[in-house]
Design the sequence.
């Protein structure tokens, strides 16, 4: 595991070496999350690299990435832990035969029953795994806004003390805090209590020059001129007031798609063929197709 | 949409400022706390804990670097995107001594508008009155109760202020129950197709390994989210007061209600309605709804709603209640398109149109209504108490 970064600039370099170009704000936010042991809540448009930063941090610092994808109706047995019922049942069967066979040999039934609710029969889910791993892990709680609000209340204990309670075993506390990244697409407002425990950063679209850099870092084989042209076209698409404006992920996809088709140039023809990589809504497609020449012009 | 930070690795925040006498002889914490208080005064909710985080955050960074001060504060003091602009402005004023120019120009107008708005939504106090008022009020309520049947069918527009106040008390008592949907969560059930391994295993342990009668579970049912989109423009101003009150009491009764107001533009007022005292909630809603009585652009506003909230999933699986007369000053094609998308993004759409009146066969002839009609699941009037009750009864049946 690599040590913590010395300062923000150092962190930016480390991330860049692993292919993630963070701007000053994001780098500062991550640096502070690491220094203060606080969870970091990232909000922003879809496809601006919120999830990606957690993955990169895991690689950069040699930590294990533990991901919890949130959805409506997620509950403790999917997020925290679950008892291995099948194994427990088998053990019970084994116990009853043993107890019948070994009535005279001092078989300790209490200990056997206690063992049924021991760590051996516990199935680890992401949150428990993160608490056990401590600072050897990056915990990504993805799209927390999709979970129900009760689930947020449930996250509070974890995020403030990095501990969780299993009634049969007791409270498990992390020896050191994992780096926690929460992401939200703002489908609903998160509770203030949750936000108060986190550092907050809004991730916007990168500037054009930085986006070109990002594309070139991700797809090193691409000609800089083409990258610039694609980025310019994407920025024009974002201005079009689409229902779903393309994110950075879409820009990279578009460049990649052009590469697969061996189109060395972004013109009206190749753009029309590959528009599906950036615009993923029928109404948006119609709008973009109508203005295609305007979109691909210049760059 | 690149973030704009004042200064990159910019000039020191303390060199010129200290010489200029802005913060002479104070140590860093005092400066940071003063900044936090300024931010609080500008309306950003900054807690003491947030300030401590800010101070802790600056420590591992370089406090002489303006960029570090900026980002450390932005990360620890702001927790909502809406507050970012305020933060930027206060930061510039505080650390860069920039004059507050654009605000000065906007202020008188904003204040004027706010007073107007407050007047428009001023409602009689709904919280418990003092003992001396109570006697008087009881008499009034007795009178109203005997007239209840009359009031039920009396259009809000024809009511006197006293009658409206009484009606509003009745409205506050209406509890909406949206239809329910299945969730991924399970609850124990007496019988069913899905076995419940957890409870079965527990019961087996309790019986020392003897297999118990099988336990079952079924999906838990939860009420669907309710999204109220209320027209508060001139033609609807008379109804908006009641509906806002209605929306308010509904928010109190259910935690899964979202409220939006629109006129010429759309504003989300859910958070304003969070506040406990009804008068304060309404005053805050008024402050947000700046387009009060400024004409209606139903299509554009619904389009905004779909783009900003609907597509992010706010209305997915929800019942959307739109209250408007459908008199749209915008392009009907936009409205048709927005309704079509909204229909796909929600479970059901109910449209309340006061102009529909009591006659169930009458469909208002406004162009907007004709355009929207194919996408509406239920058209109600909402012009009197009886029709609001109709909404309350119809809602649970919208499976």
Sequence:
């Amino acid at each position: 595991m690599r040590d913590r970064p010395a300062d923000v600039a150092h962190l930016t370099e480390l991330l860049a070496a692993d292919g993630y170009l963070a701007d000053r704000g994001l780098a500062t936010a991550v640096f502070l999350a690491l220094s203060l042991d606080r969870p970091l809540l990232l909000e922003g448009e879809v496809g601006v690299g919120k999830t990606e930063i957690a993955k990169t941090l895991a690689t950069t610092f040699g930590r294990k990435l533990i991901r919890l994808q949130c959805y409506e109706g997620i509950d403790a047995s999917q997020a925290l832990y679950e008892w291995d019922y099948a194994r427990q049942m088998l053990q019970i069967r084994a116990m009853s035969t043993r107890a019948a066979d070994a009535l005279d040999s001092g078989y300790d039934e209490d200990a056997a029953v206690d063992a049924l609710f021991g760590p051996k029969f516990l199935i680890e889910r992401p949150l428990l795994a993160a608490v056990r791993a401590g600072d050897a892990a990056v915990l990504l709680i993805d799209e927390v806004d999709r979970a129900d609000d009760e689930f947020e209340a449930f996250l509070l204990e974890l995020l403030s003390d990095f501990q969780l309670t299993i009634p049969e075993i007791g409270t498990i506390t992390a020896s050191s805090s994992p780096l926690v990244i929460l992401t939200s697409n703002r489908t609903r407002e998160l509770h203030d209590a949750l936000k108060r425990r986190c550092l907050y950063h809004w991730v916007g679209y990168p500037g054009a020059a930085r986006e070109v850099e990002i594309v070139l870092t991700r797809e090193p084989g691409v000609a800089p001129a083409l990258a610039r042209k694609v980025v310019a076209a994407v920025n024009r698409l974002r201005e079009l007031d689409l229902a779903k404006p393309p994110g950075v992920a879409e820009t990279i996809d578009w460049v990649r798609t052009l590469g697969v088709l061996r189109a060395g140039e972004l013109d009206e023809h190749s753009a029309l063929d590959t528009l599906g990589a950036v615009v993923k809504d029928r109404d948006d497609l119609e709008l973009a197709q109508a203005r295609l020449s305007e979109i691909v012009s210049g760059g | 949409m690149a973030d704009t930070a004042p200064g990159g690795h910019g000039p020191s925040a303390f060199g010129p400022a200290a010489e200029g006498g802005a913060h002479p002889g104070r140590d860093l914490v005092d400066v940071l706390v003063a900044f936090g208080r300024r931010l609080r005064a500008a309306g950003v909710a900054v807690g003491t804990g947030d300030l401590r985080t800010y101070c802790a955050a600056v420590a591992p960074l370089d406090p002489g670097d303006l960029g570090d001060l900026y980002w450390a504060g932005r990360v620890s003091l702001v927790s909502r995107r809406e507050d970012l602009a305020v933060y930027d402005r206060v930061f510039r004023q505080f650390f860069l001594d920039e004059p507050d120019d654009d605000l000065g120009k906007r202020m008188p107008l904003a204040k004027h508008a706010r007073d107007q708005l407050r007047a428009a939504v001023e409602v009689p106090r709904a919280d418990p009155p003092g003992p001396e008022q109570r006697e008087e009020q009881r008499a009034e309520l007795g009178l109203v109760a005997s007239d209840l049947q009359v009031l039920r069918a009396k259009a809000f527009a024809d009511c006197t202020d006293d009658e409206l106040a009484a009606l509003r008390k009745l409205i506050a008592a209406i509890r909406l129950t949206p239809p329910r949907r299945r969730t991924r969560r399970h609850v124990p059930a007496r019988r069913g197709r899905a076995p419940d391994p957890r409870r079965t295993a527990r019961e087996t342990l309790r019986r020392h390994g003897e297999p118990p009668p099988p336990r079952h579970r079924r999906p838990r049912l939860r009420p669907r989210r309710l999204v109220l989109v209320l027209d508060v423009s001139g033609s609807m101003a008379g109804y908006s007061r009641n509906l806002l009150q209605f929306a308010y009491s509904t928010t109190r009764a259910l935690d899964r209600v979202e409220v939006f107001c629109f006129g010429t533009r759309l504003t989300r007022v859910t958070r304003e309605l969070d506040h406990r005292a009804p008068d304060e909630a309404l005053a805050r809603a008024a402050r947000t709804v700046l387009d009060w009585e400024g004409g209606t652009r139903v299509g554009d506003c619904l389009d905004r709603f779909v783009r900003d909230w609907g597509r992010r999933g706010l209305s997915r699986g929800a019942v959307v209640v739109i209250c408007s007369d459908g008199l749209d000053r915008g392009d009907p094609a936009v409205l048709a398109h927005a309704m079509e998308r909204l229909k796909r993004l929600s479970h059901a759409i109910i449209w309340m149109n006061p102009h529909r009146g009591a006659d169930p066969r009458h469909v208002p002839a406004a162009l907007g209504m004709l355009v929207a009609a194919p996408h509406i699941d239920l058209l109600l009037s909402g012009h009197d108490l009886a029709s609001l009750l109709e909404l309350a009864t119809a809602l649970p049946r919208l499976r």
